[in-house]
Amino acid sequence: QGTALSDDTLKGVRLEPNSTNLILNNQTFSGWTASNASVSDNAAVSPFGSTIAATLNEGVGVSTTHSITYTGITGVSNTNIVTVAVYLKKGAFGADWMRVGIRLMDGSTITSVFYNVNTGTVGTKSAAVTQAWVDTDLTNGWYRCVFTCPAYVTSGVGASQPQVLINMSNGDGAANLTYTGTGRINNVFGAQLWAR
Length: 196
Known about the structure:
2% of the residues lie in helices and 46% in strands. It has a six-stranded antiparallel beta sheet, with no helix packed on it. The chain has a six-stranded antiparallel beta sheet with strand order 2-3-14-6-11-10, with no helix packed on it. The chain starts with 6 loop residues before the first helix and ends with a strand.
């Protein structure tokens, strides 16, 4: 037993693995696949003050899911644990909730976490998620949303590389992913994925 560390001492402690980011050009979301949504690069001020963040627009008039997906990941094996992180911010007339997910190496199973980007809190998460948190020490309404999970469903099974998904959501939980868009816009920046 010892003395508890103060919050100031803990600031800056690295909790995620020290590995290479497997999302290339991680500030360029126009290279992601959009589904019933649109993305514009260099359209919002980033957490660090430059206009290099992207906007994610859910679109209007279609009752479906509204997402972007990154499919360029390589080098992940079935035995890896992966950590996903992305900076998210509610737009001026944006959605309170977003989902960050990973399509696992079986090519179909999605492990995900819902984040309230208005309050900076973790919502519903998949059972396979081992850790999920939000970095709240940012300015201008940004939150860094992070979670960790296995890259596989069953160890040794799965030939696909994982894919990262970011959804606009109408609330907390999977039942809120399908809805009619009203043109709400949120901001995204600096997506990351590490494997260990």
